[in-house]
Specification:
By secondary structure, the chain is an alpha+beta fold. It has five helices and five strands. The protein has a single domain, classed as Nuclear Transport Factor 2, Chain: A (Roll).
Length: about 150
């Protein structure tokens, strides 16, 4: 009589596992990439990036250049038609100013969807003004872009 219960338990376990196998959206990919990079988990972060565009050296450098253990995301917008997303972090501080003296700004992560997975394609550090300009250009180029992830609609 216990066999039907065993089948039910196994079935429920398979259903629970199916949820965790769902593809991540662009926001969650960016969050995981940044968390891994800041924790020094270069291989984990690199697995979430396009090999030809974001090198392990760049990932390593990201941890060294940022004075943060975690970075909140301010927005994430994805274009289904363009298979492209723009994720913008909250303000970050660099451990050492850039040659222009700037040490505060935001990270802009451009992601592309390949084979059903979002991957980090590019990482830029920009001032507040240049961040707004980049976001405007992105939305003009990809008018179908919508907010994604936890802060969608905000």
């Amino acid at each position: 009589m216990w066999r039907p219960h065993l089948v039910l338990i196994v079935s429920l376990g398979l259903l629970a596992g199916a949820d965790s196998a769902k593809p991540k959206d662009a926001r969650h990919t960016a969050e995981e990439f940044l968390a891994a990079a800041l924790a020094g988990k270069v291989e984990d972060a690199s697995a979430l990036a396009e090999k030809d565009h974001v090198s392990e050296r760049q990932v390593r450098k990201l941890k060294d250049r940022l004075a943060a253990k975690a970075i909140p995301l301010a927005s994430a917008r994805a274009s289904e038609k363009g298979n492209t997303a723009l994720v913008i972090t909250g303000e970050v501080r660099l451990t050492k100013p850039n040659p222009d003296g700037q040490d505060r700004g935001r990270l802009l992560l451009t992601l592309t969807r390949k084979g059903g997975r979002w991957l980090v394609h590019d990482i830029d550090f920009r001032s507040e003004t240049k961040t707004k300009d980049a976001e405007r250009r992105f939305l003009k180029k990809f008018p179908d872009a919508k907010s994604v992830g936890e802060k969608a609609g905000k």
